[in-house]
Automatic annotation (TrEMBL):
Domain of life: Eukaryota
InterPro entries to which the protein is assigned, alphabetical: SAM-dependent_MTases_sf
Protein name as annotated: Methyltransferase type 11 domain-containing protein
CDD domains cross-referenced by the UniProt entry: AdoMet_MTases
Length: 261
């Protein structure tokens, strides 16, 4: 496999209109999140906004581009995008996506998986990209590659929505080959924030079952050897610019045979 030097990554900017933003904001603010299972709760939240998910979210998910830009992309390698939603992370590679021999996009939400499937089919990627409806915590999930065969596992704004997020990290560790890499980006809280701002963002995101934890970064650094860590503050559309939420992008390497979690 080649080095990462020839990787081509471009930022992904899907078009949006005020009317599409209004529909997404309405769904986010007034969503009737319900259900007995995590899958049912996710579906109740996303079903009315799945088709417009990317047009709004790309302007608030600031950690995606730095994560994709920093993560290794060995030619001929295998990439699993856990909690991959609509498959929008694939767009960052554009025509260079076929550098991978296999890509798996896994998500628990049927509506988002439908969008990802349509994307893959319309782009002509179906010969090497699989879209899987499944749980990131399921070690036996059909469609996931075998233990120790994967080059990169990514979680893009997914860990904060996975109740048993440590189990999801264990599953990623299991799939990775020795020397493989995990790439993660998400919202977080930081020591540099005031207590009030930290509490505000934690409370606000919890309304949509997104749980911000400082422990995520610390745990990733404990399980994997840190290769890249970037923390920043990002704005949200239609929100005063003084209100910026911290986010991070992390890339770590599997250097041990046994997961310490």
């Amino acid at each position: 496999m080649s080095s990462n030097d020839d990787k081509v990554v471009t930022d992904y900017h899907p078009p949006a209109t005020w009317s599409s933003d209004y529909k997404v904001l309405k769904s986010m603010i007034f969503a009737d999140v319900h259900g007995n299972t995590q899958q049912e709760r996710l579906e109740s939240f996303y079903v009315s906004q799945a088709d417009l998910y990317d047009s709004y979210r790309h302007r608030m998910l600031h950690g995606r581009f730095p994560m994709i830009n920093a993560m290794p992309a060995p030619r001929g390698g295998i990439w699993v995008d856990m909690g991959g939603g609509t498959g929008s992370n694939l767009e960052y590679f554009g025509n260079d996506l076929n550098r991978w021999s296999k890509v798996v996009v896994l998500d628990l939400c049927p509506s988002l998986v439908d969008v990802a499937t349509k994307r893959v089919n319309s782009k002509g990627w179906s010969n090497f990209v699989d879209v899987v409806l499944g749980d990131a915590c399921d070690f036996e999930c059909p469609g996931l590659p075998a233990t120790g065969t994967v080059d990169v596992v990514s979680f893009s704004y997914a860990l904060t929505m996975i109740p048993d997020w440590k189990k999801a990290i264990k599953n990623a560790f299991r799939m990775l080959k020795p020397g493989g890499h995990i790439a993660v980006c998400d919202f977080t809280v930081t020591e540099s924030q005031s207590y009030g701002m930290s509490a505000f963002w934690t409370w606000l995101f919890a309304h949509d079952h997104v749980h911000l934890k400082k422990e995520h970064i610390a745990t990733l650094g404990y399980v994997f050897e840190t290769k890249h860590l970037e923390v920043g503050f990002g704005e949200f559309p239609y929100v005063p610019s003084l209100l910026k939420c911290p986010y991070y992008s992390f890339v770590g390497q599997k250097v041990n045979n046994d997961c310490p979690l």
